[in-house]
Structure formats: structure tokens, C-alpha cells
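pinned: reference chain
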Amino acid sequence: MSKKIGLLVLLVSMVLSAHAQRRGSDGNLLSPVPPMGWMTWNFFADKIQERDIREMADAMVSSGMRDVGYRYVFIDDGWQGGRDARNNIIPDPAKFPSGIKALADYVHARGLKLGIYSDAAQLTCAGYTGSLHFEEQDARVFASWGIDYLKYDYCHAPADSVTARVRYQAMAAALSASGRDIELGICEWGDRQPWNWAAAAGGQLWRISGDVRDKWKSLQPYEEAHQLHRLGAGILDIADIALQLPDASGPGRWNDLDMLVVGLYGKKGPSGDLGGSGCSDTEYQSQMSLWCLLNSPLAASNDLRSMSEATRNILLNREVIALNQDTLGVPAALKWKDSVWNVLVKPLAGGDFAVGILNRSDTRQPFTLNFKEIGLPGTWAMRDLWLHETLGTGRSWRGDIAAHEVRLLRLKRVP
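pinned: its C-alpha cells
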């Protein structure tokens, strides 16, 4: 009976806090802008080593990624070594001989933050130790190590939404009581519509789809988003899901479109499954454009130690990143939609607007956009954010757009 009462109290508290958000020790929102960093999973899967993560942290600094906003090193599944005699979760001693605390110190010394991974069940997706029933203990351990972010998965957990909310709120409460500000990324793949409840449960971001694969779109037709679990979600598939969601994201509460696959070029591994044979640089650039327009967290997953020039130009474009990190925090809305063209409009702090024009077709095509038709009447100064060119002023834009390309403009109103 006590368990039922406890569950009822928890559910009532969630209803009463439907618009509440977790805040840091300073009273400010956690994740006021989408987190940016690099995640281990697509490149290393669970075969992660302490040395590799240190090298990636160094590469984030030497490449200039840290200086344009990438601050998090996210350790995904596979770091766990079980529990000790006191049931404290421990890292695999072969993979992390120096321990996670030493790694966190290394990362922090470079002006970066460290994220880690667990699961709201007894086992993680890859079969390692999860955190169910150990939320408070694991949160204290994470805090003692200096962890800044937790990606909390949902493999091996019940399918219903109520259980998910209870388990995620339990971990959020444990993190809040840990003595350290640790952001919570909810990863239940959008199956239980987390955009309706995840912020109230204590999450700062939540995945909206199955795992992204290194491809432009699914090669098979589908009607429901959950079908992408078996088909493999491509860049366009996930963007389409995001564009159908209610306007629930903003400062401290972000729709997470999953990792950037920029620069993977069909690498074997998790992102190469289910048809992930690689994308063109144009398609990778479009993923960056769409993820920034839609305010997704930006988690690169390529090898930062050996990036091509094209990959570097995509990931380090300050003008594009500025859209993602804009303090207004309003995601782009779909203002034009047909079988070939999508036009997205994102308002920015200070009164500017970002406009993304996506050619969904498989051929280069001309396009003319009258700004009045997308709710922006008047004259605008135009800047192309990928060409880094000022285009002059006008009431419309005209140009050729390559297949699967997003032309990205920043508009400033001319008095």
C-alpha cells in the first residue's frame, strides 16, 4: 500500500509542477541554450578507452571547437564495470585505469565539461550496469566524480508512459540532491511523447526519435515515427518529426534530434546500421542547418582528431552555430511545405530572422522566395550563412539550390 501511495504522491507532484523546470544551485535554468559537444557512441560504440576520450578532448581544443561553443565530452554506453562491495557504480578498470574522476579533472582543466551515461533499468542498452533503484547512490557518485551531464536511456524498461515519468523524475530528484549541477538528457526515443512531460519530470532535453543513422532518409516508406526503429532514421526523417511537434522547446527544455553524423562518411558501427552508408557533404551541411534552426543539442560524433576540411567548415561555422545558441530559444517553424520545398523561419533575439530553404528533391532546382509569403513583409538585408556573403537588400530571394541542400539566410529588417 505504501508503494501505491508513494506513486500517487509522485504523480500528483508531477501534475502540480507541469510547468516547473530544474534549476541550478545559482537559481538559473540548467541548459539555457542547447548543449554542444562530442559523443562517443557513433565512433567508438562501447569500445571506449580513457586514452581515446582524452585525445578527443584535446582535439576539441586544438581544432577550435571549444572556442565556438562545443563544451561537453559525452561518454555514452560501455564505461561501466559493475558495482563494488558497497554497491557504488564503478568504471571498467581496463577501459578507465585512472578512473572517471581523473578523466573529469583532465576535461575540466581544458575548459570542457564531462557527460556520462546510464539507463532507467537494471541493464543499459548494451547490457551494462544501469541505475534502477540506485538513483540516489549513482547520482552522488557522479557528483563526486565531477560529472556535468547525464544521458539517461530507457532500454529494458516498461513501455508505458507513467513508469517512464516516475523513473525519470526519480533520477532528476537524485541529481538535484547530489550537491552538483548535473543536466539530465532523457532518452526514451520519443515513444511516450516526452515533449509533453519531460521538462516537468526534471529533464533539460529529450530525444524525439530513434537513433540517427548516417544517411539522408529512410529508404523505405513509413507512416508512424516509431516505425523508424526498425528502418533506421535518417537526417530528413528526424527533422520531419521535429517539425510536427508542438512548440514545447525553449530555454532549459530542448527537443533532442540526436547526434550529428557530420564527417562519419559511412563508418561502420552504430550509425552505419540500418542503411547508414554515409552522406554527401551537402547533406551533412543540411543536418547542421536543420539542427541549428530547430534548436537541437549539437553532439558531434566523428573523429575530431582527423577531420576533413569540409567537416571542419560545417562543424565550426560560427554564424550557423549562433542560430542554435540564440538566447531567445525559439525553434524554427515550417512556413512553406510541398513535395519539393520546405521553408523554415526562426525568430532571433534582437529582431533578426533565420530562414532555411530546403530542397527535398534529388535534383538541383531554382527557387524564388517572397518574404511576405512567409510572414516577413518589408525590405530585408540578407546574408548567406554558409557562403559568408552579404547579398544586399530586398523583399525576396532567388537562387538555385542543390538536391538535399538547405540555403541558410539571416535577415535584418531595413527601416
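why pinned: Confidence is low (pLDDT under 50) at residues 1-19. The radius of gyration is 21 Å.
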